[in-house]
Amino acid sequence: MYAYTDFDRQFVHARAAQFRDQLERNLAGTLTDDEFRPLRLQNGWYVQRHAPMLRVAVPYGVMSSRQLRQLARIAREFDRGYGHFTTRQNLQYNWIPLPQAADVMDLLADVDMHGIQTSGNCIRNITSDATAGVAPDEIVDPRPYAEVLRQWSTLHPEFAFLPRKFKIAISGAREDRAAIAWHDIGLQLKKNEAGEVGFEVLVGGGMGRTPVIATTIRDFLPWQQILVYIEAIVRVYNRYGRRDNAYKARIKILVKAEGQAFFDDVNREFAQILQDDPAGHEHIIPQAELDRVAASFVVPAGVAAVPGLDLFEGVQPGAYKRWLERNVHGHRLSGYRAVTLSLKRVGQAPGDATDAQMDAAAQLADQFSHGELRVTHDQNLLLPWVRESDLPALFEAARDNSFATPNIGLLTDMIACPGGDFCALANARSIPVAAEITERFQDLDEQYDIGDIDLHISGCINSCGHHHSGHIGILGVDKDGTEWYQITLGGSDGSTLSGASQAGKVIGPSFAADEVGDVIESVVSTYKRERQAAERFIDTVRRVGIEPFKAAANAVRSSTAAR
Fold first, then answer.
1. Is the CB of residue 386 less than 8 Å from the CB of residue 394?
2. What is the pLDDT of residue 481?
3. Burial of 304 by CB count in 10 Å (0-12 exposed, 13-18 middle, 19+ buried)?
4. DSSP characters for 39-102?
5. pLDDT at residue 50, as a whole number
6. I need a labelling partner for 371 at 20 to 30 A (CA). Which of 92, 131, 266, 338 fits?
7. Which residues form the Nitrite/Sulfite reductase ferredoxin-like domain (predicted)?
8. Counting beta carbons within 10 angstroms of the beta carbon of residue 43, is it exposed (0 to 12), middle (13 to 18) or buried (19 or more)?
9. Non-local CB neighbours of 145 within 8 Å, separated by 6+ positions
10. Local confidence band at 424 (pLDDT 50, 70, 90 cut-offs)
11. What is the pLDDT of residues 8-57, one digit of tens each?
12. Rounded CA gap, 189 and 223, in Å?
C-alpha cells in the first residue's frame, strides 16, 4: 500500500490543524454554521438525523492493520462502539459529538488517514477493485494510477466547488469489479497491440433519480495523459453543469443532454490545455513519478509463489467447505488466495463492524495477510495475501470473530445504506428491511439452492445502496410521511455474473414496509419455479422477463391490496 512521505504526513496534519481552528471558531460563534458547512463537508463531516456523521477516506479500499486499529479506537472512545463500511470503500461513524471532531481528525492523521473530500461538491474518494494487485485476471495494477489521481485531485483549487459531487472508479482487470460504468468517470486500464498501457475513459454514469450508464469518450488514452484528460472533462462539467437544480446537476445530465457536443468540448479543452496552458504539459505524468508511487505497491516481503494446493482434497461437506467455495478467491500467485471476511450476518446491519471486530480483523491481517486489508464495494473486508496452507487456521479464527459466514455472492450478502435510521436525506429505513430478509433466508442450504444473486437496498433516491444495479433492488420512498418501497429487477453492475451495466426495471407500484419481506420471498420462489437447470437468477429474469415476478409480487400484497 502507498507509503506516506514526510510531505504527505505534514499535509494531513496541517489539514487537521486547519479544521481544528475552523471548528473552534464555529463553536465560539465567530464562524457561522453557514460559513462552516462547506468547510466541514470537505473534511467528511455531515450533520445527520441524530448526530454528526464522519466519513473517513480509505483510498481505493486499501488500508493497514494499524489504520484499522485506530478506526476501532475511534469507534470505542468517540462513537458508540462501531463503524459502517460503505460501497465507496470508506468508513462512516454516526455518533461522534462535533466538539470532539478535531481530536478525531488528529488521531486519523497520526495513521495517515483523513476525511478530505469524502463529502462536498468535489472529486470524492477514488474507488477500485478490492482485489487489485492480486487478481488472476488483472491486466494492469490500478493502484498506482489511483494513488496518482488521489494526490492530483486532493484540494484541487479549480474543482473544490463543482456543480455536484464527482466520483471516479478505476479497474485494471478483465472483469469489472468496480462498477466503473456507474460513475461520473470510469477508467479501464488496458494494453494495446504494442503492449503499451492506456485507459478506456467512460464518462457520464450515475445512479440517483435518473440512472445513466457511462459512455466511452476515449477508447485508448496513453496513461501519461490521464490527468490532463480528466482535467478537461471536469473543466467542461464545471463550466456547463447545472447549478440551479441539484437533481440535474450531475455530469450524467450534461452528457445526456449534449451528447457529441460534450465530447467535442472535452477534446477541444484537452488540446487547449496541452497547447496553451502555461503548465499544461506538467500534468503529463512522467515515468519517474509513476515509478515512485508504484514502488509502494509491491509484493510484501516474504511472499513468493509456491506450489498450489488442492484446497478441497479430503474436505468433507460442511462449514469449512462452503467457506472455501464462497469466501476464498483466486490469486495471481500460486499458493496464495484472497479471502473475504464477511460483514453480513444476523443481528448487525450490512457493512457494520464493532470496535472489537475491527481489532480482530486487524489481528487476522497481521497473522495471515502481512498487515494489509481491503474494503470491498460489497461492504465486506478482504485479506489479499493469504497462503493456502494457512486457510484452515484462518477459517477457525474468522469463525471465532463472526467473519466466516459463507455467503459471499448469495442473497444475504446484500448491499445496504444506513437509511432513515441515520441519514437525514433518507425517505425510508434500510436496516430493518435488510434484517428481515436476512432472518428469512438465514438457512444456508436455501441460500445455496437460490445461488448467486445481488440484492441492493437504498433508503432514498440518492442510491447510496446502489439499488439500480442490483439483480433485486429495493428503494425506499416517502408517501405522506410513510415508508414505502419500490422493487426493481434485472439490474447489473458490470461484473461477469451480471453482464453489461444496466438499471433494473420497476415491477409495479411501491409496497408498504410490512410487505417487502413477502415480496422478496415471492420473487425468489418465482425464480425457483421458472429457472432452468443451473440457471442463475439474473439469467432467468432476462429470459422470462419481469411479468411473472411482477404478478407474484402483486399477489402477496396485503396493506396495498386495494390500491
1. yes
2. 85
3. exposed
4. HHHTTTEEE-SSSEEEEE--GGGEEEHHHHHHHHHHHHHHSSSEEEE-TTS-EEES---GGGHH
5. 85
6. 92
7. 53-110, 349-399
8. buried
9. 170, 172, 187, 189, 223, 226, 290
10. confident
11. 999 999 999 999 999 999 999 999 999 999 999 999 999 988 899 999 99
12. 8
Q: What CA–CA distance (Å, rounded) separates 459 from 423? A: 9
CA distance 339 to 332: 13
| Cell (9 digits) for 540 | 432467468
DSSP state, residue 411: T
Reply yes or no on whether the pLDDT at 303 is more than 60. Answer: yes
C-alpha cell at 553: 409480487
Number of DSSP helices (H) and strands (E) in the chain, helices first: 17, 21
The answer to whether the beta carbons of residues 439 and 402 sit under 8 Å apart is: no
The residues, ordered by sequence, that sit 6+ positions from 37 with a Cβ below 8 Å of its Cβ are none
- Residue 563: pLDDT band (50, 70, 90) is low
**Cell (9 digits) for 353:** 463492524
Hey, what's the cell of 325?
Answer: 467455495
- Nearest of 459, 549, 428, 541 to residue 492 by alpha carbon: 541
Written as one letter, the residue type at 416 is A
Which residue do the cell numbers 487478481 mark? Answer: 135
Whats the size of the chain, residue-wise? 563
Strands 352-354 and 372-375: unpaired
Instruction: List all residues 6 or more positions away from 415 whose beta carbon is below 8 Å from its beta carbon.
Output: 87, 350, 351, 378, 379, 454, 455, 456, 457, 465, 466, 470
Q: Are 463 and 455 in contact (CB under 8 A)?
A: no
C-alpha cell at 271: 488540446
Cell (9 digits) for 319: 462449514
- What is each CA distance from 462 to 103, 241, 425, 457, 528, in whole angstroms? 31, 18, 8, 11, 32
Roughly what angle, to the nearest 10 degrees, separates helices 226-240 and 251-258? 80
Cα 245-247-251 angle, rounded to 5 deg: 95
Quick check: 318 pLDDT over 90?
yes
Classify burial at 279, counting beta carbons within 10 Å of its beta carbon; exposed 0-12, middle 13-18, buried 19 or more. Answer: exposed
